[in-house]
Design goal:
This protein is mainly α. The protein has helices spanning 3-15, 17-24, 26-37, 45-52, 67-77, 79-89, 96-114, 125-135, 145-154, 167-184, 187-196, 208-221, 238-245, 262-290, 294-299, 303-306, and strands at 234-236, 315-318, 324-327, 358-360. The strands form two sheets. It has a two-stranded antiparallel sheet with strand order 1-4.
Length: 361
């Protein structure tokens, strides 16, 4: 993504902060209300959910969109079945995408049985992520496909979401985390945010709601800001790396004890890794497109975000004759003389080895 564009929008967001605050503060009220009142084991589950969602406003009901109303109608008829669906949805030991799909499928089946005359139960990805964000606001971000698509276009995010796909949720989560990193660096914005929260607001200490609010406002209310593209990543040819790596020096080992913030380091390392994967994903698509392989370019997949880290590679791409390439991305903030370990053993039949790149941010 284009960091310069993101920072330009942050400045615009700060300039309009007071008017934005008046329109969007209900999100922090909604989370506080849910956190204070929701009880999955409530005897009167209908009344509890009704009260918990009483301040959710257009997060769940707006114009021709009625997920809260349909949720309550189904709870009134089948409270224990819906309670069980929420218990499964909130079980963080299982994959988020699987939980979302299961909730949507089970709710649709039940609603069709109870209300056969109603064609839409409204429990789409947007609504289900609202339920998750209200429960775990430190982990998730309010989601809407149209917002994701427009914001991604405005900041040159390489992933192009396709309507209806559950994988959009993971890609959106990743985008929000990258944007949040930039927001957390702007102390002026954080001060504005902190000063507007009162006792009726959820204390957004991880800035997830602030991040989503920023993304929403940029996509819905701001004009497109076009800035000159900046080269966020320096690509160094493998030959240069190898020639420089021949001149190495042995340094003495320092056993001086130190205190390391491993948690913050892990957060920073994840961001660097994400940016590297995004760059490679974009590079592979552009390479195939420039060589007239548009169909293959559309099949390039960021599997680490779509399907998780268990596959053993980050990017699925193709060479010009259509053979698949399984790409594991390694990213560093180090200088161009840094030597990468040689990972030459792969569990796949076709081992993809290409020009080694050093991504420097």
């Amino acid at each position: 993504m284009n960091i310069k564009i993101v920072k330009s929008y942050i400045e615009e967001y700060k300039r309009n902060f007071e008017s934005i605050h008046k329109q969007e503060i209900y999100k922090w009220h909604a989370i506080k209300q849910f956190q204070d009142t929701f009880d999955i084991n409530s005897i009167d589950f209908y009344s509890n959910v009704e009260l918990s969602l009483s301040k959710s406003d257009n997060l769940l009901d707006s114009q021709l969109y009625f997920p809260r109303r349909m949720l309550l109608e189904n709870i009134e008829e089948s409270p224990e079945q819906i309670r069980e669906m929420f218990q499964l949805l909130y079980d963080e030991y299982f994959d988020i995408l699987a939980r979302v799909e299961k909730f949507q499928k089970n709710f649709g089946t039940l609603s069709k049985k109870v209300f056969p005359e109603k064609n839409n139960h409204y429990q789409d990805h947007r609504a289900i992520i609202v339920y998750l964000t209200l429960m775990f606001p430190e982990r998730y971000f309010f989601y809407k496909f149209g917002i994701f698509k427009k914001f991604a276009q405005r900041i040159d995010y390489p992933h192009k979401p396709i309507k209806g796909r559950v994988e959009n949720i993971g890609l959106y989560q990743n985008l929000c985390e990258l944007v949040r990193y930039e927001i957390e660096k702007d102390q002026e914005l954080l001060n504005l945010h902190e000063n507007r929260l009162d006792e009726n607001c959820y204390r957004d200490k991880y800035y997830n709601v602030l991040t989503q609010d920023f993304i929403y406002v940029v996509s819905q209310h701001f004009d497109y800001i076009k800035t000159q593209n900046i080269k966020a990543i320096e690509v160094v040819n493998e030959n240069e790396i190898l020639s420089n790596s021949l001149d190495t020096k042995t340094e003495s080992i320092n056993f001086t004890p130190s205190i390391i913030n491993h948690i913050q380091n892990n957060v920073a390392n994840k961001r660097i890794g994400d940016l590297g994967e995004i760059w490679v994903f974009k590079y592979e698509k552009e390479f195939l497109e420039t060589h007239g392989k548009k169909t293959l370019a559309e099949k390039v997949e960021h599997v680490a975000k779509n399907k998780g880290d268990g596959l053993g590679y980050d990017i699925l791409s193709f060479d010009l004759d259509g053979e698949p390439k399984y790409i594991e991305v390694k990213t560093t903030k180090g200088n161009k003389n840094l030597i990468f370990p040689q990972f030459c053993v792969h569990k796949y039949k076709r081992l993809f080895v290409t020009k080694k790149l050093l991504f420097k941010f």
